[in-house]
Task: structure prediction
Amino acid sequence: MVIGSGPAGLSTAMRLAERGVRRIAVIESGGLNYSANTQKLSTVTGESDLGTDHFARHSQRTFGGTSSLWGGWCTAMERRAFQQGEWAIEYEELTRYYAEAAEILELPSEAIYYPESVIEGCPQLVYKPFYLSNAVRFGTKYRGFIAAHEQIDLLVSHTCAKLVQDGAIVTEAVLRNLFSPGAEPEVIKADHFVLACGGVGNPRLLHLSGIAPASPVGLYLMEHPHLVNVAKIYLDAEKIQRYFPRRSRVVHALQLSTEHCVEQGLLSFSVSFDLDELHKKPLRGSARQLALTDVTVRSEMPPDPENRIELGQQIDALGQPRGRVQFHSRYDRLARRSWQTFSRQLLNSGLGRPAGLPSTLKIEGGGHLMGTTRMGLAESDSVVDGHCKVHTTDNLYIAGSSVFPAGGAAHPTLTIVALALRLGDHLAAVATRHDHG
Amino acid sequence: MDRRLFLAQLCNLTATAGVSGALGLTLLGCSDSQQRPALKSDDRIPTSLRQDLAQLVHAEFSSHAEQHEEVALYRRLLDKGVLSELGQYQPGRLEDIMRIEPMQEYQGFYYTETELELYTLAYLLR
Result:
């Protein structure tokens, strides 16, 4: 049973079917089309410097999930996010699924095979663009496919209120229908369960079910801090264009290299730009045609257990406690240190000249809710193992960015789908062993 | 003034100002152990330098130029090796210095001190 029909849930379900799993149920809280009433189930309370609406908005309850809002930006996770053993799997274990994930997301192959280029003469800087896919709406693209599929049963407008456990085995899901809130809940049994309800929904359901109470469920909530049009830089237009991909639609970006981040004790830091108006100005002692551009910073933030999703006091229309978010990015100091380091390398490279940052930074979020059921080796400091199985259970798995122990600066959708395919492969093998006793 | 005496006095002043300053100037090749030909008292900025630096002239540096004097800037850049004894501009030397100098903001953008001096001199010589 897969609970949630966003990119994580549908990719997992379709992979299971492809690998021969005979019966797969996909349960979706929302309907085939958006409903504001249903969406209210995603409302959270609490405190956040991004506002609480931010978390509800990026937890869409409709068939296709939050892909209904997706902007189509894709980039491979940086190796830096794996450098210090944050993940319980090797980097290559993730990246080997990127090519297939790119096909699902209708990304050009350049995104996978040429994710970044080292800046000549300055290995501390890389050109690492965001590749633009067609912003696949999973609910639109896969509606007919799922509806007609013999192995997949889709149940919409049913919200999983709770999972029931018997020891380490999850035995059934209790489903409620928002349009019949007084009706008896439906109970569906399955051999294996996959939660794919997003960075807020996954930990909330674990909390509601009393699963893994000794694990950091809901803790280490991460986002990608965005500083939109935060500063200007001049870039040598002729030099930087040599790195541009030839065939793909991208948003251009420079990034500190993994090695330099590790050396400087920094996290991944990306600066996107465009080549706007040209000016003839001196740079590193010679006159150049320099493009003046606003830049947007997109960055990794460290996991902080104080940033979290818990159960709050407010009750939703199904009579269940809403999620309560506590989130403060505390990003100002890291942003300034990273910008100084980036500026230094940009000047050293002869590629451009940065401006200073403003005295006040307005931090926005990318809508990337990560880390709340993090992957790791031990139950004490993680929720799922390297196969995305909840440590304390034998048959409950989690798909989506809530399993990320480190977020990189990369937009997560490519990694979400890659991990979902990997989970599907693993679970299909487990299910096959189960079927054969 | 004898160039060796000038450099010795400059380095002594730096030692008074702080170790990092001395280190910076040592890295820049300025020490009282180095032997350089003296600046002639009637030394003028070579015309060829004006031509070399013409490409770097930009009105943006006018406000910085108001606070500086061209001969003093010329001498500083000579001392740093960014300009040769013949007054020729040495771009490789500038790049080496820029890598180690701290950044400073000028009109909102980052420069290094020597880079800014060079553009200011170019503006003054325009």
User: Anything to note?
Assistant: Chain B has a mean pLDDT of 76.
